[in-house]
C-alpha cells in the first residue's frame, strides 16, 4: 500500500508541476517532462473528434496564447489516481478558455519516473 500512496503522490506532483503548470503557462518544456514522446491524444472537443500526436499537440500549445497570458481563469484539478505496479491512470479536469475538459491520462513508470503515455479528453462544456 505504501508504494501505491507514494506513486500516487509522485503522479499528483507531476500533474501539478508539469502538466497543469505547463498548460497554464504554455510551456512545452514543462509538458515535455511529463509526456512520453510517443503519446497519442484522443477524444472530442466541442462535439468534434479529436486525435493528435504529441508533436502536433505541443506545437498547438506553443503557438497559442497561454491561459496565463490571456488573463482568463484556469483551473486544473486531480479527481482520482489509481496506480498498479508500473501503470497508472489519473482522472483530471481542466477548465480554460471556453472549455471544460474531463480527461483520463494513462501513465507508465519508466526508469523510476512517471510519464503520460495516452491522453483521452472530452469537452463537457455544452
Low-confidence residue ranges: none
Report the span from N to C terminus. 39 Å
- The main sheet orders its strands as 2-1-6-5-4-3
Structural class determined from secondary elements: alpha+beta
Main sheet attributes: strand count, strand direction, barrel closure:
6 strands, mixed
Element order: H for helix, E for strand: HHEEHHEEEE
The count of helical stretches stands at 4
Radius of gyration, in Å, reads 14 Å
Query: What proportion strand?
Result: over 45%
Total strands: 6
Taken from the alpha-carbon principal axes, the silhouette is globular
Helix fraction, binned, reads 25-40%
Overall average residue pLDDT: 94
Can you give a write-up of this model?
The chain is α+β, with helices and mostly antiparallel strands and 126 residues long. The protein is 33% helix and 48% strand. The chain has four helices and six strands; from the N terminus they run ααββααββββ. The chain has a six-stranded mixed β-sheet. The model has no long low-confidence stretch (mean pLDDT 94).
Brief rundown of the structure:
By secondary structure, the chain is α+β, with helices and mostly antiparallel strands. The protein has four helices and six strands, in the order H-H-E-E-H-H-E-E-E-E. Helices cover 33% and strands 48% of the residues.
Key traits:
globular, 33% helix, 4 helices, alpha+beta
List the helices and strands and how they pair.
Layout: H1 2-25, H2 28-32, E1 35-45, E2 48-53, H3 54-62, H4 67-70, E3 74-84, E4 87-96, E5 99-110, E6 113-123
Parallel strand pairs: 1-6
Antiparallel strand pairs: 1-2, 3-4, 4-5, 5-6
